[in-house]
Write a structure and sequence with these properties.
344 residues; alpha/beta; Rossmann fold; 2 domains; 7-stranded parallel β-sheet
């Protein structure tokens, strides 16, 4: 099946480069290109592409306005291509994710040797992944969920670690969880989010601006303390041991670096009665085995339900292993977390 792509970018050179990339792959086809936001909206409506590749800085309608129009009248998977990873551009990129875009990538350096070939492979893989994701126009009706047994931490213990793993569709879900936490949250939050190279620091900064709890990028060797959230940097694995964070430069696991499994497994090297672990939206199976290890070591494990996931792959893999204590819609996770982490 051929993936039909619409490119929206005000740069003719960028549009030509992207068209050239997709001509290399028999399973992709560029059905249209737009040089401004209004044109992008009109072509999305008329051509009904499988995916829109969207620049954020465009004339007539900027990228964020374009995204809102597309999601309102012709919901379509959107991949944002960001021109830089400076603070203002990264902030716009994550605002786009908050408004419905599925993922973000940095544009390639056209004059750097070999960079275009590497970018083409990553872009093709990303397009194959995102084009099959279902996108909705309006929020789903609130589903009535049966009353569930109240989750409680292991007898005699008080949780002090909230460990979160997420991938595709995850940034918005992670933000939803962290935004519900108070500044005096009585535990340390760890976030392992699969994200494009160069965007982890911006992701942490964006979360810090959006949330009451302090959010920052994890640093090697630092002690972790309650009331802060630490985001794994891209390009290395994050682990914890003896109250400190360790960043490990080892091979990818499950094709991911940082890997959720690597982090969860590091927690499971000790009893996990003080650990609450969440596995959110994402493609593949990273985190499922690690979640099972945490559960078997006495931790509390939650996974996001299919209806609220952009991609149900990782939660589904965890459920198949019986690694989840509860399967919850995203909107119910904050209440459950507040039950497990009572304020002093």
């Amino acid at each position: 099946m051929t993936i039909r792509i619409l490119i929206a970018d005000d740069s003719l050179l960028v549009r030509e480069v992207l068209c050239g990339i997709f001509q290399q792959y028999p399973d992709t086809c560029v059905v249209g290109s737009a040089s401004n936001g209004q044109e992008a909206v009109e072509l999305t409506l008329s051509l009904k592409p499988d995916l829109v590749i969207l620049d954020l800085i465009m004339p007539v309608l900027d990228g964020l306005e374009t995204l809102e129009e597309i999601m309102a009248i012709a919901p379509t998977p959107v991949l944002v291509l960001s021109g830089a990873v400076d603070e203002s551009e990264v902030d716009r990129a994550f605002t786009a994710i908050k408004r419905g875009a599925l993922d973000v990538m940095e544009k390639p350096e056209l004059d750097a040797p070999g960079s275009l070939e590497e970018f083409a492979e990553r872009l093709h893989e990303k397009v194959r992944l995102l084009s099959g994701i279902r996108v909705i126009r309006h929020p789903r009706r609130r589903t009535r969920y049966p009353l569930e047994e109240r989750l409680e931490a292991a007898a005699g213990s008080t949780p002090n670690i909230l460990a979160i793993g997420a991938s595709t569709g995850g940034p918005k879900a992670v933000m939803s969880v962290l935004k519900s936490l108070p500044a005096n949250f009585p535990g340390t939050v760890f976030v392992v989010q699969h994200i494009a190279a160069g965007f982890a620091a911006g992701f942490a900064s964006w979360l810090d601006r959006e949330c009451s709890i302090k959010v920052k990028l994890a640093e090697d060797g630092t002690r972790y303390v309650p009331g802060e959230a630490l985001v794994a940097p891209d390009g290395c694995h994050m682990t914890v041991a003896d109250g400190r964070v360790h960043l490990v430069d080892q091979a990818p696991v499950n094709c991911c670096r940082p890997s959720i499994d690597v982090f969860f497994n590091s927690l499971a090297q000790a009893p996990c009665d003080q650990v609450v672990s969440l596995l959110l939206s994402g493609m593949g199976k990273d985190g499922a085995l690690g979640l099972l290890q945490i559960k078997e070591r006495g931790g509390t494990t939650l996974v996001q339900d299919e209806e609220s996931c952009a991609v149900f792959g990782m939660p589904k893999a965890a459920i198949s292993l019986c690694a989840a204590d509860q399967v919850l819609p995203l909107e119910r996770m904050p209440d459950t977390i507040s039950q497990l982490f009572p304020l002093p």
